[in-house]
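Fig. S4 source data, part A: sequence.
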Amino acid sequence: MNYFVRRLSLTQQKLLCDKLALESGSLYSKTLEYFWVTVDSFKKWTKPSELMRLFNSHNIHAHSADASVQSFCGAVKSWKRVKKTVPTAKPPKRTKKYFSVIWKSSAIRVKKNQLILSNGRNTEPLVINWKYAEVPVLVTMRWAGKNYELVCCYKQSGPVQNLSTEIPVGVDLGQIHVASCSDGTILNGRLIRSLRQGRDRSVSILDSRISSKRKGSRKRR
């Protein structure tokens, strides 16, 4: 089974996107506050299934609401795993006014070259043009700096077709560098690392020389 991702920029329907992101952020923040109050007051770590029953919304799809709650639970799980090797790692305690919205397969359908993302009975669906034959299995809406974008994940069980303009990329997670991406060519980062170390050493030498000069003097300049 092959999985692919497409990113689509949303230049329209900003009001609807803001409403959905605001609702998702509210759910995330409510979950976060309840979770930590329960931990501080009763020393109880609430399970994700319990939190999903407690917090839901009528303004976004039920499974999208569950995804917002699960996002916080995933952040807590990651923090607990990292804390084993990095004791100073901080837990997720910052509330979100806006947060990404996730649609699962139950809220996704394609009809007449349009991708329709359901948002429950009280909110109109998010509809965008969709020129591809595949139906995504997971769609995430997030803020991309200037506008919203959709990250569509879909699977293809057969051979890869009609992807002449798309290049598969492999990602290797490392300890020194967060991620190294490659489209087939193996690149060595030792040269870049040596240049960076040389630059840092030169800057350190210059800083030590500058610090010995009187402020405002000609030699310091």
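Fig. S4 source data, part B ends here. The radius of gyration is 24 Å.
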